[in-house]
Amino acid sequence: MDTKHLKSFVAIAEAGTFTHAATRVCVTQAAISVQIRVLEQEVGVKLFIRTPRRVILTEAGEKLLERARRILREHDAALVELAELAGSERGRLRIGSASAMITAETLPRILRALREQHAHVEVGVTSGTSETLVRALRAGEIDLAFVSLPVEATGIETEVLSRDELVAIGHKNHPHARARVITAERLAAEPLILGERGGNTRRLLDMFFHQAGVRPEVRMELPRLQAIKRMVEEGLGLGIVPSQSAAEEVADGRLVRWWIKDAHTINWELGLARLRGNDSPLMQAFVRLSRAEFKPLKKAKGARRK
Which of 284, 239, 237 is nearest to 118 (CA)? Predict the structure, then answer.
């Protein structure tokens, strides 16, 4: 079986559509369809059931998926070992990100630097909640991921890249806009716009309100910080976000910010997670570049109230 065909097969299984998979492996939709047709002819069975919205693995496809991932991992490991002997590293790196800001702003810089060091590396990027990405790591579907910490999963090792304090944000004309601190009770009395369930930040917030003995009114659950901030700007509720993520809007006067009383247990931490023992030269290079990219952020902590 051709490794290109297997890569396309795995991409379709993970993306759910031929269109998204074609983008991931950098070929046309027509080309990836031909590759799968050739693969199905080679193995003698159908691998996918086509539906109007997505494709579904057949029983044969599910059996092949596990083996295909194993074959590709071995293929990548062999390339890395041989490339080390030749003096240039090749391989594939599949990255997950639970942060739209990281995906849009930070990750492109890291990948550009990685390509400068390893021109032939194949890179794939996927997004999801921290919980989803940790499951993908354990299943071997991705190699590492930017996630909110802590991660409590067997076989996963993490390191902190950045820390920030969670703060409440509101519309600039909110009745309590001049206050500096807000309590859990006051927050619970307001319509809240929070991140969706499944992320560590949301889990910590739910625990914070539970320990405070209040039940908040969560009006919206959104997957992206940018969406939360825009809803708050429109006066639709209060949000709770990392302080640095709203620094620009607060400085411009579009939002107001409150420190949350007794919220020291819900500080936000961004980390890099990977399977324990997954320590290829390519992985090491990505980790080094990530540390270097986030080093200035660790020092740039906002001034805290006394």
Answer: 284
Q: What pTM was computed for the model?
A: 0.61
pLDDT digits (tens, 9 = 90+) for 283-303: 889 999 999 998 754 444 444
- Quick: pLDDT tens for 256-273: 999 999 887 678 889 999
Q: Cis ω on the peptide bond leading into residue 150 (within 30° of 0)? A: yes
In CATH terms, 166-266 corresponds, of 3.40.50.2300, 3.30.565.10, 3.40.190.10, 1.10.357.10, to: 3.40.190.10
- Residues contacting residue 160 through CB under 8 Å, at least 6 positions apart: 149, 269, 270, 271
Question: Could you tell me the fold of the domain covering 89-163+269-306?
Answer: D-Maltodextrin-Binding Protein; domain 2 (3.40.190)
What class, spelled out in words, does domain 1-87 have in CATH? mainly alpha
